[in-house]
Amino acid sequence: MADFTIWATAAEATLGWRKGTVVRAVLNNQNATKILPLDASRIVPALRIVLLANKNRFKGTAAALLEELNFRTRREERPKGWPANAQVLSSQLRRVAPNLRAAGVRLSFKQSSGSRSTKHIEISTSGDFCDADDACDAHSENK
Q: Directed axis angle between helix 86-102 and helix 21-40, to 10°?
């Protein structure tokens, strides 16, 4: 892929393309690949709704997040494999965390200190994060 990118970049002017067209296309394609698993996630659609309803932020325990997700998603709309408890939700979030970050979502897991420590999840985004369908067009400058 790198060889093709080098060759195609050198040919941009000859092909009548603007400088940087190939690199932008390759980067957009890589970004789409990173966020594609979000479309397959059971919790991401509900997480989008939670973030939109809470001014693009959530801070709390996995149990609180699961409660919020359950509140925002009717029981009959929950897909098979919906997290049954906070531990399962936390595992699912950790699994898609790199993909969420690629989509512009900041996600961190923190544990408070002391004998009564709790684990908190902090999620924020500057806006509705894109999915794989949006990724290809997100940074396109050639129309």
A: 170
Cα(59)–Cα(122) distance, rounded to whole angstroms? Answer: 4
The position carrying tokens 């997100």 is 138
Query: Residue 127, Cβ neighbours under 10 Å: how many?
Result: 9
Return the percent helix, strand and coil in the chain, to nearest 5: 55, 15, 30
Average of pLDDT values for 57-77?
94
Q: What is the spatial distance between Cα 33 and Cα 15, in angstroms, rounded to a whole number?
A: 26
pTM of the model: 0.70
Give first-to-last CA distance, the chain, whole Å. 24
Q: Is 118 in contact with 112 (CB distance < 8 Å)? A: yes
pLDDT in tens, 18-53: 999 999 988 878 777 777 788 888 899 899 999 999
Residues in the chain: 143
**Residue 20's pLDDT is what?**
92
* Residue 143 within a domain: no
Q: Please, is 62 exposed, middle or buried when counting C-beta atoms within 10 Å of its C-beta (0-12, 13-18, 19+)? A: buried
Domain extent, residue 104, equals 2-138
The number of distinct structural domains making up the chain is 1
129, part of any domain = yes
